[in-house]
Structure formats: C-alpha cells, structure tokens
Amino acid sequence: xxxxxxxxxxxxxxxxxxxxxxxxxxxxxxxxxxxxxxxxxxxxxxxxxxxxxxxxxxxxxxxxxxxxxxxxxxxxxxxxxxxxxxxxxxxxxxxxxxxxxxxxxxxxxxxxxxxxxxxxxxxxxxxxxxxxxxxxxxxxxxxxxxxxxxxxxxxxxxxxxxxxxxxxxxxxxxxxxxxxxxxxxxxxxxxxxxxxxxxxxxxxxxxxxxxxxxxxxxxxxxxxxxxxxxxxxxxxxxxxxxxxxxxxxxxxxxxxxxxxxxxxxxxxxxxxxxxxxxxxxxxxxxxxxxxxxxxxxxxxxxxxxxxxxxxxxxxxxxxxxxxxxxxxxxxxxxxxxxxxxxxxxx
Amino acid sequence: xxxxxxxxxxxxxxxxxxxxxxxxxxxxxxxxxxxxxxxxxxxxxxxxxxxxxxxxxxxxxxxxxxxxxxxxxxxxxxxxxxxxxxxxxxxxxxxxxxxxxxxxxxxxxxxxxxxxxxxxxxxxxxxxxxxxxxxxxxxxxxxxxxxxxxxxxxxxxxxxxxxxxxxxxxxxxxxxxxxxxxxxxxxxxxxxxxxxxxxxxxxxxxxxxxxxxxxxxxxxxxxxxxxxxxxxxxxxxxxxxxxxxxxxxxxxxxxxxxxxxxxxx
Lengths: 346, 265
Ligand SMILES: Nc1ncnc2c1ncn2[C@@H]1O[C@H](COP(=O)(O)OP(=O)(O)OP(=O)(O)O)[C@@H](O)[C@H]1O
Ligand SMILES: [Mg+2]
Known about the structure:
The complex is a heterodimer. Chain A is mostly helical. Chain A is built from 15 helices and 4 strands. Chain A has one domain. Chain A has helices at residues 2-19, 23-49, 57-72, 90-112, 118-137, 139-142, 169-191, 194-204, 206-211, 216-242, 252-265, 272-288, 293-310, 315-323, 332-336; strands spanning 74-78, 81-85, 155-158, 162-165. A two-stranded antiparallel sheet of chain A has the order 1-2. A two-stranded antiparallel sheet of chain A has the order 3-4. In chain A, strand 3 (155-158) and strand 4 form a beta hairpin. In chain A, helix 2 runs antiparallel to helix 10, helix 3 (57-72) crosses helix 10 and helix 7 (169-191) packs antiparallel against helix 10. By secondary structure, chain B is of the alpha/beta class. Chain B has 2 domains: 1-84 and 175-265, P-loop containing nucleotide triphosphate hydrolases (Rossmann fold, 3-Layer(aba) Sandwich); 96-174, no CATH class. In chain B, 41% of the residues lie in helices and 22% in strands. Chain B contains 11 helices and 10 strands. In chain B, the strands form 2 sheets. A 6-stranded mixed sheet of chain B has the order 6-7-8-3-9-10, sandwiched between helices. In chain B, strand 9 and strand 10 (233-238) form a beta hairpin. In chain B, helix 3 crosses helix 5 (124-144). Classes of the chains: A mainly alpha, B alpha/beta. At the A-B interface, helix 7, helix 8 and helix 9 of A face helix 2, helix 3, helix 4, helix 5 and helix 6 of B. Bound molecules: adenosine-5'-triphosphate and magnesium ion. Residues 18, 21, 23, 41, 43-49, 90, 263 of chain B line the site of adenosine-5'-triphosphate. Adenosine-5'-triphosphate binds at residues 18, 21, 23, 41, 43-49, 90, 263 of chain B.
C-alpha cells in the first residue's frame, strides 16, 4: 500500500516537467528538491538516532564549497608553500564533496558523541559558525564575501557518449530527482536493517541497547558520517545549480529550515522530510504571489506553529494514522511462514 | 582442571563507593557454569549495583571481575555483552515503542552478518541475514511463549508479559550467563509460575543464571545456591535451606522490613 503510494508519487514527479513548463516553478522545485535531500540527511540523525544537529548546514555548505573549488581550481599560499589546483570535472567535485563532508561528519561525531544531548547541539552550532568564518576570511581560497562565481554546471560523463552538461532546468530537475531517490533508497535500506534498529534502540533506551551488545559510538558516528555525506551531496548539487556560493550559505536559518522540514513532516519516518521539504520549500514561493513579503513570513511562521501544536508527531504520522488506523506491521502469517522446522526444547 | 577450576564468573575484592556511601564493600564470589545463583538482600543492599559493576555499567572503585577467565576491567557494557554476559534491568527492560518481535530483533543485533555495504547496496547477504534473524526471533518468541503477541507494541502488553519480552531480548543477545534483576517483581502467582518454567528451559540450554529477586519462595525454589547481601557486604552464602535458617539473614530482613514496604509502595 505504502509502496504503491510511493511509486505513484514518483511517477508524478517523473512526469512533472512534461506539463509544468514554467521555468520559475521548475527552479523552485529544483531548490526544494536539493533542500529536501538535506532534510532527509538530517532526519537520519535527528529522527532515527535522536541527535539534534543544529549545524547541519555546515555539511551542506562544505559540500558546496568543496565541489565548487574542485571544479574551479584555486591556488593558495599556506606559509612558504603554494598549492595550485587545476580544475577537475564536476563529477569529481561531487564525489569529493560527499567524501569530505562525510569525513567532517566523522570528526564531529567522534568529538561530540562522548557526551551527548546538549553538548552535541552546541558542538554542531559552533562547527557551522567556525566553517562560516573560515569561508568568509580565507579570501585566497574562497573569495570571502565576494563569492565563488561561474561555478560550472553539472556535467555527466557517460562512457561512450562523452560529456553531457546539464544546462537547462529540466535536466537539472531530473538530476536532483535522481539523487533524491538514491538518497531515499539508501536511507530506507539503512533504517530497515539491523543498523537502523540499533540506531532507533539507542534513541529509545541507550542502556538497554548497550546491554544487548550495541556499540553506541559506532552507530552514532556511522549515522553522522552518512548524514553529513548526503548533506554534502545536496550542497554540491546546489553549487552547480545556482553557480554562485558565498559564506551566507552557512547561515543558521538554513539549518532551521531543514529542522522545520523534518519536524513538520515527521521525524523518524522516511516520508516525513520529503513531505516537509516539499511543503516548506514551495510554500514561501507560493505565498509570494498572494501576500507581501512581511505577511508571507508571518503566515509561514503561524503555519509552522500550527503544525507543531496540532500535529506534534508531524504530518506523515498523523496522515498515516488516519489512512491506516490499525496497521502496524505485516500480519503474523508473514512471519509464521518462516518458522523454522527445528524443534524447540519445550 | 578439577576442583580448583576457576568459576565462570569471578568477583574479586570488588568495592563501589558513591562519594561517601559504600554501596559495595569488598565483595567476593564466584558463579559456576550451569548453576543458578540467587543474590538476595534488603532494599539498598547493593544488588543492582553489583549487576552494574559486573556488566560494565559502573567502574568498581576497587577489585576485579573476571568472566571466562578474562578480566572485565575497563570493558564497555557492549563488550561485556559480546563475551556472553547479558543482564536485564530492574525497571525498564523493553523497548516500549517497538513491537515484541522488534524487541527481539534488536536483541539479535550481534548475530546479523550483513556489512554496511551489503545493507546500503541491498545485496543478497543482507536479505539472507535478515531472514535468519527473523527465524531466530521467532524461535526465541516461542521459547518464552510470546509468539501470539509478536506484532503488538511492547507497551501494550500486560506487565508480566513485558517482563518476558525483557528476558527474550536478553536471550537474543546470546548469553552464556544471564543476570536477571528482579524478573518476577510485579507478576501475579500464575505469571510467576510460568516464569519459573521458563527459567527451567533457559537452564536446559546450558545458560548460567545469576538471579536477584525479592520473591523469597521463588528464589529459594529455583536457586542452587544463595548469596545474601546487606549494606554492601555478603553476610551469608549457601544452599537455600541453610540460608532460610540463618539468624543473621533473618535479622537483616527484619531490620529492613519497614523500608521494604516503603520502597514497594
Ligand atoms: N548511581 C548512584 N549514585 C549514588 N548512590 C547510588 C547509586 N546507585 C545506587 N546507589 C545507592 O547504593 C545503594 C545500593 O543500591 P542498589 O540499587 O544497588 O540496591 P539494591 O540492592 O538493588 O536495592 P533494591 O532491592 O531496592 O533494588 C543504595 O543506598 C543506593 O541508594
Ligand atoms: Mg535493585
């Protein structure tokens, strides 16, 4: 049932550019899609392990900068040395963005998961701020507030067919959709596995989880790495789509946006960040045509408060309870069929 | 390797101090393979603290715990568990928001064979491993007699059944030795009787048991040997019949009578 719903929704997204030709709306959908990927990555940490990363945009921004710098090239002086980097293809930038963001996730996780809760929140906020200051002040490398310009568009190299640069909105739309679907599938597999069960167990009762042999640090750090890597992928997509990035990308408001998407959509559910991302990614724009900017933000804020108060679990769990009031798991027969034949000492 | 063989679990000169409070003072005992050892004592005697030290949740102020001749000093709880020493908790011993079978699957964590890559790429080993875990979960549920509640949320179960889920969870972690902290507290007579049967089954599997329990007829009935703790000290050790007659033990319990009632109110 759920699977059918997901497939219909995917078919809808796949055919969307066929009838929606307004480039502005496509643009909104592309940026919404990118932020939805970031929200999905945040959900892995916040929803499944229960760790609130309030500096999540750092991983997004690092992905954007890494990818941009890899493809633009740079030369910087560090002390007596000069590092010169020639431009690389965008695919390399994307891969490096994922790897380096993941590495940062690892470091932050290792650093802060010894003491959890508020400490993790503070470390992540500070991390994002430090990264922002570096991006702002290391002018040699990042151009500081002047921004990195002329970032090349995403180019896919297909063996045999050569390179395809994604110039228009439609190819970029499909690129973002493809990455989003891949991220969704990865997260779905992860949380449906024993790794996901370990994460949820840690969130619910850490002592009990540990007592059955689950290594807390291992799984929290793993969640942080994968979460950061996916956010880095989203950042890379962003950089090559908007083609200009500056240190403002690290602003706290972007993290807040991701948190809202996750919490409003339903944290700890697969569909939550997708629903939250689509609503809160497109809402400000849809409101723009009807309300002045000030009322638009007021409405946005009120809507957010409304959701948090009326649907504290988020939209997806609330809708699910309505649609499938009593379903929880597959019926017992599903498991009975795998009943082993070997006898029990009974 | 005869009479002087090292016990499965050895607690040697262990002390635990909380600031000025001596929760455990110089504790020494051994648990032999295959035995059911009852650990009793009035409220606050230090029984749970002893469990916490043995399973790595607390660092002893002094002393050493050895399991299978390996020192547990400095090991984290999940490492102790992976050696085959698994405990349950006095209060919450289940994941309330998970189904019964979900609980057991969490307990089976260490038995999964799939690597991260298998999982992310959805490779065959992931599917196979998940299938094995489900089969295993099912056989544990049948052992404890909860197969009909498999898909209910743990929190929806009657209290007695929840305690069984806690034991199923611990069994899933493949214990050589099981530490049970007041497993029948809050159970009615028939639930307790059912639990005693389950203990027999667990025993038949060769699992050694260290049991903390306030239900005297129950501990006396199932234990091969009893250790009595009072104010962090072992005041008596021996077969149940002997312990029941021990004047020091009787005095310790009488002295705590008022506090016990208070605690369980
Ligand atoms: N983390 C802690 N910090 C300070 N004191 C503690 C701590 N844990 C236990 N204590 C104290 O240590 C003593 C032993 O407690 P413990 O929980 O081991 O008793 P118990 O024998 O399990 O009692 P009960 O039968 O009530 O469960 C008590 O006085 C208790 O208040
Ligand atoms: Mg206790």
